[in-house]
Amino acid sequence: MSAPVLGKSYDRPASLDLPRSPRGRASSNFEKYAWLFMRFSGLLLIVLVIGHMSIMLLLDGGVKRLNFAFVAGRWSSPFWQVWDLSMLWLAQLHGGNGLRTVIADYSRKDSTRFWLNSLLAISIILIVSVGTYVIFTFDPNIS
């Protein structure tokens, strides 16, 4: 596509890949579903986070009322447990999927990509597990 100048071709160097160029064999439809997940989870996260921020910071006195009793009362309701759990899971999976894409775009070596994706998966699993555990086992009757 480039015009030769003085007998030289100025095509891109063979060692550089274009961002998002496929490596290896193409996976089925995983990337399509990951792309769709990012769009829908982003929209749902906007609703969840704006609702969370409104309730926690703006309504009924704002930040001054936030204490252990407020959290205990909030998490005694299954509705708020599911709300906060949904926010946790969606935020972690949405962010992890975005970081997975960044790792795929910018890591050159397959081994680097493997280890970065492994660390990412471990961190997501750890944070989601601990967060889920805390939400469901929270005891408001602390002694």
UniProtKB/TrEMBL annotation:
Gene3D superfamilies, A to Z: Fumarate reductase/succinate dehydrogenase, transmembrane subunit
InterPro entries registered for this protein in UniProt: SQR/QFR_C/D (IPR034804), SuccDH_FuR_B_TM-su (IPR000701)
Transmembrane segments: 33-59, 114-136
Record bears the keyword tRNA-binding: no
Record's subcellular location: Membrane
Annotated signal sequence range: none
Any Pfam family: Sdh_cyt
Chief subcellular location: membrane
Keywords: Heme, Iron, Membrane, Metal-binding, Transmembrane, Transmembrane helix
Protein name: Succinate dehydrogenase hydrophobic membrane anchor subunit
Lineage start: Bacteria, Bacillati, Actinomycetota, Actinomycetes, Mycobacteriales
